[in-house]
């Protein structure tokens, strides 16, 4: 884990609080006051078929969910997420491996020298082994030069966006937990390797952009989360799409890699699920169902009739 060098004890607590506040501090209105949700039904499918836009971090106050989410979960015999959560341990192992440079390479030669100098001066590393019972070890930035910029960016920004506490209440986990209890089938749109490659395949330049972005916009990141959360609660896909405008403008290849390119790959797989005639819910990040190149738009071009609930 990487932390700003100043106020080592206080920074981690502050970041965690930032992660919890946007979700728990927003007043949650009763479900019936939201005319639309990030749930869609394919009305000309052989069997009940739902597209569910997820937000990966929620609070207890967001439950119970508005009824369309519960209907999609209840009526589906198969839940398909971005990748199979049953292979999460494999994903974590491969994801961290993808975050490291090959032997003989490190971040020093991969990023702008001025940025590297700033990181050395301002960033510390924290290594903790929860199984050893020992206190976390704090070291200088140079103790972990093997990690790529995008990995460092995630560890700087993630606590402010999705804390462990709020992520545990995320929509994905809710669907998975209830699907397992009910004995439903669970699968993924992507293989583990494909899911790893979304971030692991970033170029050096793209990776450095993500790190600079995390360092220069920590407060804006929390504000973005609030805006996206509010849009998700209202089923407002236009607002969700608008919230991604900055990234599409400044780093279009990254934006496409995270959303549009995956949508294109997913649609034939979703169509294959549709043709099975099995009641199914596709659960993915809400942004995948927003904008002109969304999963919804691509399915509509193939003749599917889709209704937002």
What's a concise summary of this model?
The protein has 309 residues and is of the alpha/beta class. 51% of the residues lie in helices and 14% in strands.
Could you tell me the mean pLDDT?
Answer: 84
Beta strand count: 9
- Write down the Rg: 20 Å
State which percent range the strand residues make up: 5-15%
Element-level helix/strand string: EHEEHEHHEEHHHEHHHHHHEHE
Helix and strand composition category: alpha/beta
How far is the first residue's CA from the last residue's CA? 40 Å
**Discrete helix count:** 14
Strand order of the largest sheet: 7-4-8-3-2-9
Low-confidence stretches: 1-32, 159-165
Characterize the main sheet.
6 strands, mixed
Helical residue percent band: 40-55%
* 3D shape: elongated
Task: Please render the helix and strand layout as text.
Elements: E1 2-4, H1 8-24, E2 39-42, E3 49-54, H2 67-75, E4 78-83, H3 88-98, H4 113-122, E5 123-127, E6 137-140, H5 149-161, H6 164-167, H7 171-182, E7 185-190, H8 192-200, H9 204-216, H10 218-234, H11 237-243, H12 245-250, H13 252-275, E8 280-285, H14 295-301, E9 306-308
Helix pairs in contact: 1-5, 1-10, 3-8, 5-9, 10-11
Task: Characterize the structure shown.
- By secondary structure, the chain is α/β, with parallel strands linked by helices.
- The protein has 14 helices and nine strands.
- The strands form two sheets. It has a six-stranded mixed sheet with strand order 7-4-8-3-2-9, with helices on both faces. Strands 1-5-6 form a three-stranded antiparallel sheet.
- Helix 1 packs parallel to helix 10 (218-234) and helix 5 (149-161) packs parallel to helix 9.
- The longest helix is centred in the last third of the chain and has 24 residues, at 252-275.
- The termini are far apart.
């Amino acid at each position: 884990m990487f932390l700003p060098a100043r106020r080592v004890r206080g920074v981690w607590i502050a970041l965690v609080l930032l992660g919890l506040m946007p979700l728990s501090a927003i007043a949650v209105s009763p479900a019936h006051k939201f005319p639309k949700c990030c749930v869609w039904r394919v009305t000309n499918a052989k069997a009940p078929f739902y597209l569910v836009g997820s937000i990966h971090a929620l609070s207890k106050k967001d439950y119970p969910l508005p009824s369309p989410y519960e209907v999609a979960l209840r009526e589906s015999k198969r839940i398909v997420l971005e990748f199979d959560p049953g292979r999460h341990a494999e994903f974590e192992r491969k994801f961290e491996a993808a975050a490291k440079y090959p032997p003989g390479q490190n971040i020093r030669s991969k990023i702008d020298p001025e940025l590297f100098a700033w990181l050395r001066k301002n960033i510390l590393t924290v290594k903790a082994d929860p199984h050893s019972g020992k206190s976390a070890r704090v070291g200088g930035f140079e103790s972990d030069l093997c990690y790529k910029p995008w990995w460092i960016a995630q560890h700087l920004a993630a606590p402010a966006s999705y804390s462990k506490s709020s992520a545990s209440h995320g929509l994905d986990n809710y669907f998975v937990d209830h699907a397992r209890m009910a004995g439903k089938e669970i699968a993924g749109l992507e293989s583990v390797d494909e899911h790893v490659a979304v971030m692991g395949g970033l170029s050096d330049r793209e990776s450095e952009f993500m790190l600079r972005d995390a360092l220069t916009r920590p407060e804006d990141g929390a504000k973005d989360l609030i805006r996206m959360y509010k849009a998700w609660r209202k089923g407002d896909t236009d607002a969700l799409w608008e919230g991604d405008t900055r990234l599409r403008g400044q780093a279009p290849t990254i934006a496409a890699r995270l959303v549009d390119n995956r949508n294109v790959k997913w649609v034939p797989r979703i169509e294959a699920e549709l043709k099975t005639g099995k009641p199914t819910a596709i659960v993915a990040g809400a942004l995948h169902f927003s904008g002109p190149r969304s999963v919804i738009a691509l399915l509509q071009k193939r003749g599917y009739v889709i209704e937002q609930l």
